[in-house]
Design a protein that fits this description.
There is one protein chain. This protein is an alpha+beta fold. It has 21 helices and 31 strands. The strands form eleven sheets. It has a six-stranded antiparallel beta sheet with strand order 1-2-3-4-6-5, covered by helices on one side. It has a four-stranded antiparallel beta sheet with strand order 28-27-30-31. A three-stranded mixed beta sheet has the order 12-15-13, with helices on one face. Helix 3 packs antiparallel against helix 5. It is globular.
Length: about 675
């Protein structure tokens, strides 16, 4: 793990961990040169000498850097830091498509098509460059805060001019989205990606994958043999034309699928047109290929066991050996290859000493435990939490996540839903709107408001609420409408007719109040509001610094009140340069204290061991900021972020402190 605050490649300051994977970890970092946030993928320390991992890492960098498209995650930089390879990518702030589908299902049909259009557009470009992704799944598709799609993780992508056969050391990808030819170890083509795209579209429309099973082989066999479950039986609003897009994309034989991603996109974009309302169900012309059809006859025990789990076991028919040979002639020799390929897939999916964590999200706790045990894993800690999206008793998530590699017998922790956390609705009648909103928002309720005339309540007070006080509801899914009192229109008219001049009043002192309270006051006095923001060391962020006109001024209805709101204290950045002199080893003068330090012992071969510690708003003096070796006099430029008080720095060379300074926010001169 890389520590927070570490400056990678003298440019990217590590801010937080975004995710941990089997090959690499991904961090959020600040690019201190271009002043933007980026995602940095760094090979795990224990794998930096693994040639296969390095090759996959380089392949991802090469494949992604060649593909410039708004729906593909951009690669900005590739480098090494003290021998550790890293890749700097566009940071996409938002969920992956898997989480988005889970949280928003059912997704409206036009929106699902819009999402798929972006994915298809990106893959159209990749295929034009003869790059096959081979691992398309919602977990590798990110979505930013505006709903824009970004495809990531081209780590196992392959160019068509390279070997497109799935070799014995590279059967990768998620079995839930893999084409039948991939699971058999066959030729990987653009149609293999199209199959995965069809499964993703199926999941976007239904909220779940078409095939599940207790083992990877069970799922692979379903992809090879079973028909895709009907979309229209699950949702009658899905037209046949849209279901046909899924059926054609996921045809068992690649020849029955779309010839290109562009063809699939064109078909998808017209699938909701009324002119296609009477379309017939798509029927593939080739059906299941011969390899798949004769698997049950060749490997009856394996297939019978897998089908028994699904309740499909059949009584085997008795047939003499020679009669079988006469029936199938010599087909059985060639058809042994897919059997071996599936067994090989099992071997590679679980590895010599590890297995992949099965996807048990939304399963019952009992079913999840059974699935884990059948995969050779143990059930670890079971924790429970409230969830508005996952039903009570079902699994919300696992640690490690689904598809992560885990040693055989390793423990997988479960997070199980306790159902929604019901909240008692408070009584907010008679409160001011700003106060009522704060109270309800703090409990998780969404709040709307509307006005109504009243002579019983002062303007700005709550007359009634749409959800009765005392009821227990799911706050995250409940919107409460508040009715706010305003002055009666006839009273306002009478007031205006009795005087040709507008009534004036003294402006209240709003300093230190929240912006919402100030706006509520202005509304009750029928003042127009203009909001400005400024930094303040004494006023909390979001509170009022001052008003114009000032408190006590005579104002009238319709006047404009300018409210200046605090941004909080202004953060100051101080840059300072320090020089650390290199000292060649002098064995006779090395003190006993230095020789007892393990880092000093190695300095003769690597140079002077330098450790830097800093203290500012983002760092503690107790944590190492940088740790490296120098072989010549070296300058270090450090940026300190200071809001209040001063920063500090301590630099230690071979166990001796050579710099120990306090950094003033008003001093940015170079040090040494």
């Amino acid at each position: 793990m890389i520590n927070k605050g570490y400056l990678l490649g003298d440019r990217y300051r590590i801010v937080d961990t975004l995710g941990e994977g089997g090959m690499a970890n991904v961090y959020l970092a600040d690019d201190i040169i271009l002043k933007r946030q980026v995602a940095v993928k760094i090979i795990r320390l224990d794998l930096q000498k693994d040639s296969q991992v390095l090759a996959r890492f380089q392949r991802e960098a090469l494949a992604t850097s060649e593909l410039s498209h708004p729906n593909i995650v951009s690669v900005f930089d590739v480098g090494t830091d003290h021998g550790l390879p890293y890749m700097v990518m566009e940071y996409v702030k938002g969920p992956d498509l898997k989480d988005y589908i889970r949280e928003n299902s059912p997704i409206p049909l036009p929106q699902a098509i819009k999402i798929m259009d972006q994915i298809l557009s990106a893959m159209e470009l990749a295929h034009k460059h003869n790059v096959i992704h081979r691992d398309l799944k919602p977990q590798n598709i990110l979505m930013d805060e505006k709903g824009n799609i970004k495809i990531a993780d081209f780590g196992i992508a392959v160019a068509l001019n390279q070997s497109a056969i799935t070799q014995t050391n590279s059967v990768l990808g998620s079995v839930h989205y893999m084409s039948p030819e991939q699971t058999r170890g066959g030729m990987v083509t653009k149609q293999s990606d199209i199959y995965s795209l069809g499964i993703i579209l199926y999941e976007a429309l239904t909220g779940h994958v078409p095939f599940n099973g207790e083992t990877p082989v069970a799922i692979a066999l379903k992809h090879a043999e079973d028909d895709i479950p009907s979309l229209r039986k699950q949702n009658k609003a899905i037209p046949q034309a849209l279901e046909n897009v899924v059926l054609k994309a996921t045809a068992k034989d690649p020849r029955d699928r779309y010839a290109s991603v562009a063809e699939m996109k064109a078909d998808l974009d017209t699938s909701l047109d009324p002119s296609r309302a009477g379309e017939a169900v798509y029927r593939p012309s080739h059906g299941n290929n011969d390899e798949t059809k004769i698997l049950p006859a060749l490997n009856g025990k394996v297939m019978q066991a897998e089908k028994a789990k699904e309740g499909k076991a059949e009584e085997p028919k008795k047939r003499s050996f020679w009669a079988s040979i006469k029936k199938y002639k010599w087909w059985w020799i060639g058809s042994l290859f897919p059997v071996f390929a599936i067994l090989l897939f099992m071997f590679l999916a679980v590895g010599h000493n590890n297995v992949r964590v099965p996807d048990v999200v939304n399963m019952t706790e009992k079913a999840a435990k059974t699935s884990l045990k059948s995969s050779g894993l143990a059930v670890g800690a079971v924790k429970r939490t409230y969830s508005s999206d996952v039903k009570k008793g079902k699994v919300i998530s696992t640690t490690p996540k689904a598809n992560s590699p885990v040693n055989k017998g390793g423990k997988v922790n479960l997070l199980v839903s306790k159902g929604p956390n019901l909240t008692k609705v408070p009584d907010v009648e008679g409160l001011y709107l700003s106060t009522a909103k704060k109270k309800l928002n703090k409990l998780g309720f969404k709040v709307k408001s509307r006005e109504a005339p009243s002579n019983e309540y002062l303007p700005g007070l709550i007359i009634s609420q749409s959800v009765k006080a005392g009821r227990k509801v799911d706050a995250s899914k409940t919107t409460i409408t508040l009715v706010v009192a305003v002055a009666l229109e006839d009273q306002a008219k009478a007031s205006s007719s009795s005087s040709s001049k507008k009534a004036t009043f003294k402006l209240a002192d709003l300093t230190g109040k929240s912006l919402e309270d100030a706006q509520s006051y202005a509304k009750s006095k029928k003042l127009n509001v203009k909001v400005e923001k400024d930094y303040s060391d004494s006023v909390n962020s979001g509170d009022v610094i001052s008003t114009y006109p000032a408190a006590g001024s005579e104002v009238s209805e319709g006047d404009t009140l300018t409210i200046t709101v605090s941004r909080g204290a202004e953060k100051k950045e101080v840059k300072k340069t320090f020089t650390v002199d290199y000292q060649a080893e002098e064995s006779s003068s090395r003190s006993s204290d230095e020789s007892s330090d393990s880092s000093s012992n190695s300095s003769s071969s690597q140079g002077n061991h330098v450790r830097i510690y800093i203290q500012d708003d983002d760092h503690s003096l107790g944590n190492i900021y940088r740790d490296l070796y120098i072989t010549k006099d070296t300058n270090f430029t450090i940026t300190f972020s200071v809001t209040k008080g001063d920063g500090k720095i301590k630099i230690v060379r071979d166990g001796q402190t050579v710099v120990d300074e306090t950094i003033s926010a008003d001093n940015s001169e170079s040090g040494n």
